[in-house]
Target: Enoyl reductase (ER) domain-containing protein
Amino acid sequence: MAELNRQWLLRRRPEGVVGVEDFEYREASLPTPQDGEVLVRSLYFGYDASQRIWITEHGGYMPPVGIGEPMRTMGIGQVVASRHPSYAEGDLVTGFLSWQDYVVARVDGPMPLQILPKADYPLTWNLGVLGVGGLTAYFAVTDVLKVQPTDTVVISAATGATGSIAGDICKAMGVKRVIGLAGGPEKCRWITEKAHYDAAVDYKSPDFVARLRELCPDGVDAYFDNVGGDMLDTLFDLMAPRGRVVICGAMSSGYTTPDVPGPKKYMNICTKMLQVQGILLFFYRDRLQAGIETLARWIAEGKIHVEEQIVEGFEHAPRLLPLPFSGKDPGKLILKVADPS
Amino acid sequence: MAELNRQWLLRRRPEGVVGVEDFEYREASLPTPQDGEVLVRSLYFGYDASQRIWITEHGGYMPPVGIGEPMRTMGIGQVVASRHPSYAEGDLVTGFLSWQDYVVARVDGPMPLQILPKADYPLTWNLGVLGVGGLTAYFAVTDVLKVQPTDTVVISAATGATGSIAGDICKAMGVKRVIGLAGGPEKCRWITEKAHYDAAVDYKSPDFVARLRELCPDGVDAYFDNVGGDMLDTLFDLMAPRGRVVICGAMSSGYTTPDVPGPKKYMNICTKMLQVQGILLFFYRDRLQAGIETLARWIAEGKIHVEEQIVEGFEHAPRLLPLPFSGKDPGKLILKVADPS
Model:
């Protein structure tokens, strides 16, 4: 066990796109767990657009990360010392960690660290396809959108950690036509060649709306929105009567302010009697295991394509933070910090 | 039967608040019905905020009223000549009419004129509490919001033709706490003294948000939105987790442009997993009779207070059009044109 605890602390609240200079590197001594706490060694950090919200003043659905505190992240770790009866040394765990080699975690909150069961799939899947992204996609598609085989479904940010899984879930459920939206021909190729989508449309292309309309001659029955903004307005106009929309994110806003621009075309909700609902995994915390089992089965059956971008080295932690908003490669972005012992 | 057909024609597409000068008075000769048509004499015209949308260039969910055409209205009339086997001379009918003494109506469209059954209640109720407003309120409350006895429900434009009925429907269904929003102390008094709401909050008062928050200590479970704009944003912030919102209108926009300002706080949909759905009566056209029967029963039981503002005289038709947006008295605004024969 190293004696050094490397940390990346939030130096200031960033304006606009987050940068490395918004964080401060520090080396601290190892923390000591008290009664009811565990000491966890960091193995992997997952990257998610919502981390940008956590460092705004309002924090969104969680308290904001404080200035001078280690940056919050979803992660995988290993218990190296436990003073809580439910956790043993050596346990592999997942949940909220932070950007440091060692984290002391209280495990009595509403979302405690989960002990990972022994499994024959890679540990990192717990951060992506079987973690927040995959499970959010799963409940959004099956429980919110309640997709039907006859549906035409459109999914934005279709190469993202959530969107890429959402499309495959729709196809696994037998949906007739699933269309992914992404920026650039390379990502669009990935959508139909690696993921199981039926078609892809490049939103950066000048004939984007015309092309999408052509692919959805009877309108869009279900839209999985990860981006908000103009795209949401475009889809509101394309929705079929009584269509369903799930609001999963508004990445186009960059999450730099508490309020994001509202959809100008939202009166389509009224005139087409659309059903628009949000998804937050917190509300499904009692049903996560069922989701994980179904997703794992679909992966084994080849119905879900797993894509991960794994970068190695604690020093890269801040540099990767803006990537979910911009140019990252398809799938889940993960930082590897250490191997389990 | 008069030989003269008085008409109010749309002269131009109004900008902003509609005025009398946007219409032109004309006296025409009586039209003659062809095969499959009926000639209807106008008795009552109902006023509705959505008429403002029909005279914009886009028309909303219906084709726009053309320049030089008689203004479209919901109305009650009497068949004076029929060349359609389903309609007989003397039949009282309701549906889309227009601002003229006599209308030739085709009755084969998706929303044909409905023959009114003999009933022991006033004819005008078919335009208000048993018409579009009352039925929209009924299906929005029972089928979209699916209110529960334990709910805290908030309704905006609570003295309007729809909102006033919506509150009483909630109470008839046993909802614990129903709060109406309106402008000014007089309207707020009406909400609790005439309608059956539990409380009223004056949105023009400086402590409006604090007062509303105080009345909803556990958040708002269901919000009936008739106004959009800042009010919708305020309510998004006050909604309880997994709350429900029905979008029935956006009257605060004045409906002068196709796009109305979108809610800036709409990401609450995601973080609180709200369910936001529209209501358009068109989608309930096979279930209207059941709604009318239930509403009529509740009125007979004293559970729904019926309020109508009836103005007499065809000459007033354009003058009343902006009133649903501004200072009109509570309830349904109706113009009386003639008595049935």
